[in-house]
Amino acid sequence: MGDTPRREIRSFVRRAGRTTRAQTRAMTELWPRFGIDLPDAPLDLDQVFGRHRPRLLEIGFGDGEALAEFAGAHPETDCIGIEVHEPGVGHLLLALEDRGIENVRIICHDAVEILDRWLPPACLDQVHLFFPDPWPKKRHHKRRIVQPAFLDKVARALRPGGMLHMATDWVPYAEHMAEVTDGCEWFDKDGGTAIPPAFAGRPQTKFERRGMRLGHEVRDLLYRRNDAPLSSPADC
Ligand SMILES: C[S@@+](CC[C@H](N)C(=O)[O-])C[C@H]1O[C@@H](n2cnc3c(N)ncnc32)[C@H](O)[C@@H]1O
């Protein structure tokens, strides 16, 4: 019993999903160009991108279309996308190649661990979390990625003044996000908790379109990282 490793509660389950032949090729041929293989030490993002520019992180990019659109429209912003679902990673790799987008790097790993172990403090200007899995059943709420401990990690990675932009099509999750983020001392609300999507300045996502077809209401939540210092290493 004592030797049984504790099972982490993760915000995702690895779905088998169908990987197309093109996506398989992308994982072999394009990964060396756009993918980040995790080193033993925290990432040096200036080295990863070969320059120092404003940086955005998108967590759980799905098929990556929103990230590709954002990166294509903002060539002066360096974008890191994290996703655990390999077909989605393959899809984004192909989109980057097709559209000649150079300012994106991809990590295929649990974003919570990346925030914890691989991102240096205050290295990001923006974090996007668009339509994270809502885990609607009460017994699954513990799997929702937006929790106080997660926000502490995001706060550590964002520079003061940096933005956290979340969106969901599940109103009870939006309420949960607002409650938890309002209660986090490192974030200040920016522009209200329910920005109409048309004003939120982000591309529409695949999961969002699905939600809208089902008649779901979409909510965007914007928060700014304030300059309150993280109080102790335990907060990181
Ligand atoms: C509901 S989908 C939304 C995808 C996309 N953002 C969209 O709006 O179309 C949530 C995505 O987050 C990914 N995900 C969930 N937890 C994650 C984690 N801890 N690290 C990386 N990706 C995660 C899942 O694999 C899934 O693709």
Which structural class matches the secondary elements? alpha/beta
Do you know the CATH topology of the largest domain? Answer: Rossmann fold
Query: How would you spell out the order of helices and strands?
Result: HHHEHEHEHEHEHEHE
Main beta sheet, described?
7 strands, mixed
- Attached small molecules: S-adenosylmethionine
Low-confidence stretches: none
- Count of alpha and pi helical runs: 9
Q: What is the radius of gyration?
A: 17 Å
CATH architecture of the largest domain, please?
3-Layer(aba) Sandwich
Q: What's the CATH H-level homologous superfamily of the largest domain?
A: Vaccinia Virus protein VP39
Q: What is the total domain count?
A: 2
Distance between the termini: 30 Å
Query: How many DSSP-defined strands?
Result: 7
Strand content: 15-25%
Which oligomeric form is depicted? single chain
Helix content: 25-40%
Principal-axis shape: globular
By CATH reckoning, the class of the largest domain would read Alpha Beta
Mean pLDDT: 92
Strand order of the largest sheet: 3-2-1-4-5-7-6
